[in-house]
Design goal:
Layout (H helix, E strand, L loop, with lengths): L3 E6 L6 H6 L3 E3 L2 E4 L2 E4 L6 H11 L4 E3 L3 H14 L2 E6 L7 H11 L4 E5 L5 H15 L4 H8 L6 E6 L3 H7 L4 H9 L3 E7 L2 E8 L2 H17 L5 E6 L3 H14 L4 E6 L2 H7 L4 E6 L2
Length: 280
């Protein structure tokens, strides 16, 4: 069997334990808070990012890893592996996908670079599924073929805490922000073909949460969902309350709680909550 290198970026949301256990090569995104730049999960943890966002959320930014880091990584991997599989955050939101393609071609290392069209829990789940297929003895070609079906089978909804930060990041328009603030409207966001778009505009936070839970119920009734990720930008207690409610409602649903990756949380604000799954 071919020796496969697994490559991703820190938007995957995978635990350091899982990364180390499976020797996954993770390129860190850059988070800039209060004019100080940090490499995600190296210079600063997700929990520390969200603590800083409480005080310095205004103007916080993110950027992709320097291109040179991709080049160095693929130069090294070429000597140690036969092939590679790289899964990156949505190409509509970051340039990691394109940088990965360019760097692999520079070193003529055979890598299948896949645009996940998403990030956080769903991206990490794709990688977990791919590694499980490798353990089952599936061929490189079979693994790649299966992984390529996932981007169009993912769902991710966000309940952002900070519309002002979304406006600054360009994720929603100034007009949307002004009207939402004036009318006390909560925006529910979703990923659609790799882009973040407004799913619904709802008058109360409670109704917005019910809207998300209805999405989950609909998917569950269709048999599309067996595992659900609940992600939080520092709001861990609320995330566990959601888990408790959903676990009681759906006996066979596995619910995972994890931090929302800072690349998303920086733009949506401290306290943001999100749900995501890959359709069965």
């Amino acid at each position: 069997m071919k020796k496969i290198a697994w490559i991703t970026d820190s938007t995957c949301g995978l635990s350091q334990e899982f990364i180390d256990e499976h020797n996954i090569h993770v390129l860190p995104m850059i988070v800039n808070i209060n004019n100080i730049s940090y490499r995600e999960d190296i210079d600063i943890s997700k929990a520390e990012v969200y603590e800083l966002l409480k005080s310095y959320g205004e103007g916080a930014k993110t950027s992709q890893p320097p291109y040179g880091e991709f080049v160095q990584l693929y130069e090294k991997l070429k000597e140690e592996y036969d092939v590679g599989i790289a899964l990156h955050a949505s190409s509509a939101l970051t340039g990691t996908y394109q940088s990965s393609i360019s760097a692999s071609e520079m070193h003529e290392f055979p890598v299948e670079v896949i645009d996940s069209k998403i990030g956080s829990y769903a991206l990490g789940k794709m990688i977990k599924n791919g590694i499980e297929l490798e353990k089952q003895g599936k061929s490189y070609e079979e693994i790649v073929s299966t992984l390529k079906t996932y981007p169009d089978q993912t769902e991710m909804f966000l309940l952002p805490q900070s519309l002002e930060q979304l406006k600054r990041s360009g994720r929603v328009s100034t007009t949307q922000t002004v009207f939402a603030n004036l009318l006390n409207i909560n925006l529910v966001l979703k990923f659609e073909d790799g882009k973040v778009v407004v799913d619904e505009k709802i008058r109360s936070k409670k109704k917005a949460v019910r809207h998300l839970f209805q999405k989950i119920e609909d998917a569950y009734k269709k048999g599309e969902i067996k595992e659900l990720g609940i992600m939080h930008a520092g709001a861990i207690e609320q995330a566990h309350k959601w888990k408790e409610e959903l676990s009681q409602a759906y006996d066979n649903l596995k619910v995972i709680v994890e931090p929302l990756v800072p690349v998303a949380g920086v733009h949506t604000g401290y306290g943001t909550l999100s749900v995501s799954w890959i359709k069965e």
